[in-house]
Here is the input.
Amino acid sequence: MNILLTNDDGIYAEGIRALYDSLKKNGEVTVVAPDSERSAVGHAITLSDPLRVKSVNRNGKFFGYSTTGTPADCVKLAIRAIMKKRPDLVVSGINLGPNVGYSVLYSGTVSGATKGAILGIPSFAISLATFTNPDFSFAAEFARKLARLIVHHKGLPHGTLLNVNVPAVPKKRIKGVRIVKQSERAIEERFDKREDPRKRTYYWLTGEVIKSDRKTEADIETIRNNYISISPIRCDMTDYSFMDKLKLWKF
Here is the structure.
């Protein structure tokens, strides 16, 4: 198995190292990842600047290639220019923090996998649902199992990727895996108004998830109940159910 690995937390993140150590048991792994954190860049690509690439060592050994680009840049650059052989699988992660609900639109992690799907390669993004004291070991183990399953089932539908979220609890507390929809999670966003030492005003985005009483089988509720959530996501965002109604409008 020939695997391309990327992320949005940067090539020096612990999540990508754990994923690399696990996936290399499945086959050959090539790492192409941003040189620093690129969280919440979505599917942005670099057009006006060159993409610079450097070889990166970790613990004294060659680990992969860092780039000045976004996760989507990394995947495209790896496949079109760096790798000698087209990968069988693209894996993005392990992200620090969940990627659920509408956050998949912003996520650089999900977009790394999306670029793989667009290029016709089976792809998945994987995230650990915590921002503090992460233990990536079980998520990395599950990623290796999922990679084998994808190859066993001869890939995924063209243009479809898997968004995986792993609860941040010990392995023995994981109840299982559920295939669920993306939640309609909303965030109440706020801007903290602050002042720097030179008396200049700046704003810092903050906010919190709006809790819902709805009991739905969706990603955020699933990981809260200690199940791994897997949501198949399509690159085609067309609302087919509304197309016929829209055609009746008098333009």
About this structure: DSSP finds six helices and eleven strands in the chain. The two ends are 52 Å apart (CA to CA). Residues 2-183+215-247 form a domain with the Stationary-phase Survival Protein Sure Homolog; Chain: A, fold (CATH 3.40.1210.10). The chain has one domain: 2-183+215-247.
